[in-house]
Amino acid sequence: MDIEGGSMMLSAARKKLAIYGMTLTLLGTGMWGASASQASAAAGMPMVVNSLTGPVTKEEIDSFKQYILSSSVTPPVSNLGNDFVYGPSGQNVEAMGYMYEISGDTEILDQMIRFSELMLSARNNPDTGRVLWNGNRELVWPNKKIGEVNSDGLVIEGYSGSENGDVIGHIAYSAKLILENKSIWNQVVPFGNSAAYGETYLQRAKAYVAELDQTIDTYMIPNFVKPDTLRQYWPEDPRWSTTGSAAPNTPIPWNQQMMMNNGFMRLAEAHELLADDQARVNLYDSIIQASIDWFTSSLQPYQVNGHEVYKWWYVADYFGKVEDADGVHAANDVMGMTRAYERGKYGVTLDTLMKLSNTIRYVISNGSGNFYCKVDGLPTTCTLTNLWSEYLHIAPYDPDPATYQLLANPYYMSTTLTSPIYFARVMWVKDHRSWTRNVDADLSPAMEAETYSSRIGRFTRAVCDSCFKGAYMQAPDDTASELTYSLNVAHGGQVYLHAFGAAGDHGAAPGGSFMVSLDGGPEAALPIQASDWGWTTVAQTFPLSDGLHLLTIRGLGDGARLDQVVLSKSATPPIEALQPKLTDLQVNGVSVPGFSPGTHTYSVAVPLGTKVIPTISATSEHVVEIAQPQDVFGTAVVTVKDRLDPYLQSKYEVKLTGFPIYGEVPDRFISFPIQSVTASAGYHASFPPSMAIDGDLTTRYAAKGTTQWIQFDLGDIRPVRSAVIAFLKGDVDRYIFDLQVSEDGTTWTTVYSGKSSGKTAGLEIFPFGAVNARYIKYNGKGNSKDTWNNINEMYIGGQRMDTTPPVTTDDARSGWQTEEQTVHLTAADADSGVAHTFYRIDDGAFAEGTTVEIETEGTHTLTYYSIDAAGNQEQQRTASVQIDLSAPRIVPTVTMSVYATDPVRLDFQITDAGSGVNSSTVTLDGQPVPLPYTAEPLSLSVGRHTVTVRASDQVGHLLQQTYTLQVNMDIEHLDEAVIYAKQQGWIRSEHTYTTMMVLVSVIQKASHSERFPALHALEKWLQAQSSKTIDAANANRLLEMIAPLQVK
């Protein structure tokens, strides 16, 4: 099968308007569209690439998030046309995985899980699904339409092949990312469990892995992997020829082997994280190893202008077709080799990757920005404008950025903004390529941990509201890892390293630490606070001379967190109480509202349309330096330096944003798109009515006179409640007007008469009572200065109806707990807000509250729901809470007093009403015995025996109880003892047996006083027969049995 093709989703860019300091999307002539939190209901805005180099920015992450959650990205439905492989659905899952690894944003992970589950659930049904080439309904993802015919006229609907490996790999990627983040394992996946893969993230990951292993075990390995060599071949079965693919028992092409390897590799990584099946990990790795070794051995090295490059073919053992550089062929080969290198298990060398990179740069590239169609550059008449994004995986391993620049060419970037996978791979390269920051050591440069130049290991980014830039980096708690910061230093000298961090928050031991080194020199310890966030300082200083340096921070596997690193010539860490402060902060000579010396970040709104950049000023008893904003809506940085220690500094940021709407904006405010506008005659030709709805506050509609009107058509009747208007010089002049509304454009109702405030040149809201209208008319009467009516912009406002119920979550711990449980309920409602939360335990009555105390043992069902202020009630949700406070219960089920001539049976009922019995042991006189235990007659000596029973439950409760087993003997049972001894062969002589029975009969019939001489006679007879007609050991057992009977 020749896997080719693919598609990109394109979305038209839209105009933007800044209000409230947020970016809001213009929809037609309306005011703005849904905010990011409702992005799923609207088309996505194009993603933002701030730069092809440097760290991934928050704006880039946010732009990807709003796009992937929007309606521009459609959920997976079926794998027809390989949609789950290299089509939009499969590639979107990959993109979300890359961006989650970069950002740590669980909303991106949740969307990835949604898509993965839809793909997994679309797998062929083994009972009712499609019958494949081998006559079976296999657990795979068919990619052909029912009745599909190839160019030879062959019906190929029964085909399903190597591409399944990529589907497995995409879904397993979700499981791997969950398993790498232990902090979310026991959290409930927020979008429900309709597919029944499990409530928690960990349950989901395990379910995905188990399901995917089934496909591997039942279809992929039996059909496509040779059992002797582990190489990947098409099936030997002659029925394979009916699929229209390659001939049976021939090698699978390299690009498709890399798809298979993707599935094997990510499942192996998942099992490693679960530590549940090392044999399976070894098998998957061995299959990949065989494939990588085979591919590497097929690469033909040669030189082009002194550069080592490779030539290779489409499939092993066939030299008639050079590998294609276009489409997914060589792209998959290159990506597969980089993944194998990153796994670190298959012997792929950096030298091999460099030669592949050279092949792209010096052979596939034609030197003019285009590319040849084959990996050997022939024929030169076939060229491409761009290569597939899979090639980008090679970029981090080539220190020369030329190949990266070729792959991220302008044509390519034109599609990146609306293709999640192209965008995410550019971000992935940025996150993996080293970059250098310029720092001035005299200015105590601060670096957010997440702005590293490169990283090794599983350092992850996480969101933190209290962090300096909203995020921090966390070392894994299972492996060592590194962050590297590349610095170009000016005004160097001896510097201290101060770090703001915290200990691990998901299972690490109290405290945490990193090791710090400069330019590969000796490492120094950086201890991290054992409790909350705080500053710590490396004990030694570092010689930071002018020029280039590499600062490396290495994790020690304890989950420590790092938010910010400061290099300073001051030994004093930038603890808030010790930092120099401002006493005032001003914009254009006016103090910033709400200024506080301890608050370092401000957002100040200025009127939209302002042309002059505002001036920032500040006062302090210390030295103040100000970097003014470079544009109207830029950011100013104010640095305060201690007079006695100028390297002890603090910084303030002032971000200038668009002026907010003046007046009280109601909850759930929305604007309705204006479809058209008309006006009375006499408006100024240079300022027509259309300028009142063009989304630009620097243009205007203008008409002179006290009877002028301008009318806005919503296109349909809407529940309107306000008008939002910006007037020319509205902060100086007050405009006089009426507002009228109409459903039909004929009958009008006045809803507002009055004046503007004269206090804002931006938008001002004019509310009125709720009314249904299609048309809104502004009747202008001039302003406080003249009779001109000047409207910069007009919007019609309403109130979003709240029809969505709140969402309530719980923090109940999964599994059995050994103490009473407190469960907290958290409810959220983006519209009218949460009004009430109710809960009940088991079948009890509902109570209102968000804190639930559960004190009794057993499995309890916590049912809860919330109601918002609009009366919307969510469906009841449940959580299982299991409490086990006590140890197992042990009860003997047999008598503990027996006669020596009876069989001895020991058995106990061991139960645990909570988590269940985990283990139990029984000892008899200190020796372990199984349950139930049975001993033959005469096997235990007469007297007391100690029986000890130990039992533990699943949560570790342990109970030990000791019992006494009493073995008895009396005159009446003597004959039974002799008979049993004869039956067991202890007595070998009939004469001895007869004599003993006669003696026993005498004993049993004798009076109490005559009994003891008879017992003595029996004892002497046994002693005489010992080792003769009765073996010595059994004779002694009989003697021990009768000894207690001789006690007078």
From TrEMBL:
Database matches in Pfam families: F5_F8_type_C (PF00754)
F5/8 type C domain sequence ranges: 657-799
Gene3D superfamilies the record matches: 3.30.1920.20, Galactose-binding domain-like
Name of the protein this chain belongs to: Discoidin domain-containing protein
The species this protein was found in: Paenibacillus whitsoniae
